[in-house]
Amino acid sequence: VLSPSCRHRHSNPGVNWKHKDAAIYLVTSLASKAQTAKHGITQANELVNLTEFFVNHILTDLKSQNVNEFPVLKADAIKYVMIFRSQLPKEQLLQAVPLLVAHLQAESTVEHTYAAHALERLFTMRGPNNSTLITPAEMAPFTEQLLNNLFKALALPGSSENEYIMKAIMRSFSLLQEAIVSYIPTLIGQLTHKLLLVSKNPSKPHFNHYLFESLCLSIRITCKANTTTVGSFEEALFPVFTEILQNDVQEFVPYVFQVMSLLLEIHTSSIPNSYMALFPHLLQPVLWERTGNIPPLVRLLQAYLEKGGATIASSAADKIPGLLGVFQKLIASKANDHQGFYLMNSIIEHMPTESIVQYRKQIFILLFQRLQSSKTTKFIKSFMVFINLYGVKYGAIALQEIFDSIQPKMFGMVLEKIVIPEVQKVSGPVEKKICAVGITKILTECPAMIDTEYTKLWTPLLQALIGLFELPEDDSIPDDEHFIDIEDTPGYQTAFSQLAFAGKNEHDPIREVTSNPKILLAQSLHKLSTACPGRVPSMLSTSLNAEALQYLQGYLQAASVQLV
Ligand SMILES: *[C@@H]1O[C@H](CO)[C@@H](O)[C@H](O)[C@H]1NC(C)=O
Ligand SMILES: *[C@@H]1O[C@H](CO)[C@@H](O)[C@H](O)[C@H]1NC(C)=O
Ligand SMILES: *[C@@H]1O[C@H](CO)[C@@H](O)[C@H](O)[C@H]1NC(C)=O
Ligand SMILES: *[C@@H]1O[C@H](CO)[C@@H](O)[C@H](O)[C@H]1NC(C)=O
Q1: Among all ligands shown, which has an atom nearest to the Cα of 226?
Q2: Scanning 118, 175, 444, 490, which has the fewest C-beta atoms within 10 Å of its C-beta?
Q3: CB of 129 closer than 6 A to ligand 2?
Q4: What is the residue extent of each domain of the chain?
């Protein structure tokens, strides 16, 4: 019914475009059975052949030389591609791509916005092998035009903060990857200029978010190809970042910290002076008052410590108390205590020993105060990772001595009341590994565990360690913790402006110690048993349960060692 009349209208589009608008609307409605935001139309009606309609009626509008003629029909056509994208064959979509790119230049806001949105959606589609349906190679002939037109569209009246265009820029970068590297020196200037403008008066949160995501992608992709280019990004971005921080543009500050973390983490040698100049400002209490700042600021301080622990110790030692002040504030909060531990673990890992030795006891006292005032599962898990990391770094004897220096027999109490009953709750592969290696050291490198009243804890601790290796994680939460206030729950906290493309790599602080903690346990037990023959087998035979003993024999065999 539709085809002949539509064909007729082709011959006289100037008069009949309203009829065609209605016809496309009808087809779209008839054909749509199920629509989702993620995939567009997922189920089509068998009355309409969508491919035929696309070829005969939609493509003609998209192909017209003048993108500004009949904007309503152009918008209809683009919308058709957008909503039926999951139904149309890839071949048709590839035909549509350069046409959509051309429509980014249309004067009509609806038309160029639709074009940007349609491209963004097409670029997220997945093919049968779960890679993007449209590949960077297929985009190669249009890459330059695409990038040009997207940035030019931002200059069109009414679209200077168009979130669909900015999202399409982000998605194009993400799809094209290395193919954008040669364009970045030009584009970064445009992005930075845009950032400077919107930071005067942030009003479009989505636009701003995608702008920062695009910056992150530019950095990641370019620096992956050549890490030394990180300096040129810092040169371009730091003046704007400084202005944002100085004017305290609250919406942007968490983003700036994330981008700075990403940049600093890319550096391979020492920390540049430009970062050190900023360091004292990061410790200002006012910044830590805002919950949205806390996760990105902690990450940034961690990056400072990783790249510049020694520099801070030598040239900013007067700032160490400020750093510990931040730790103290975080650790006192049920919501932010885990962030405090992230910071402290980085301090332990990266600061030279002599620069923090005078503060160590105070750190442990703070932790005990918090344990006494409110002992939550989250705190205990982080606490265990911290003490074991401390033991791995400074040795099991140092760990025992610092506990017992606070209060006699404290070390035994911590093992008995916290480590042995709770270690099964530790989650995360790296966290578990830190605990496994730390406990192995306590078992095998701490004389007090062999020849004092702590000896009675030796087998229960070994049993707990084997449980950590072999048993499922204990994710139970005591009943009285289900009533923690809303502002204390981690889910509420994570509602900060997290950038997907600023993602941090998983860090393993003990990667050089071992990759196989079971083998390390077997080797360490072997060493201990040769140092005091007879003791280890007798402790095992008295109270280790049969199942645990069997697992342990498996580790010894795998390590090809025997206990004597
Ligand atoms: C739609 O038309 C195309 C081209 O004429 C044809 O190849 C395809 O099989 C048709 N699809 C359906 C579902 O009938
Ligand atoms: C995935 O499929 C596309 C075509 O659909 C192909 O070009 C690409 O090489 C495939 N990728 C992998 C990793 O197999
Ligand atoms: C497909 O790839 C996406 C993005 O890389 C990923 O998030 C998703 O888990 C993958 N899905 C499968 C089934 O592999
Ligand atoms: C990497 O980037 C630096 C600075 O931009 C440049 O001098 C150098 O030639 C680049 N190296 C390669 C291998 O492209």
Answers
A1: 4
A2: 490
A3: yes
A4: 1-134, 270-371, 375-474+504-564
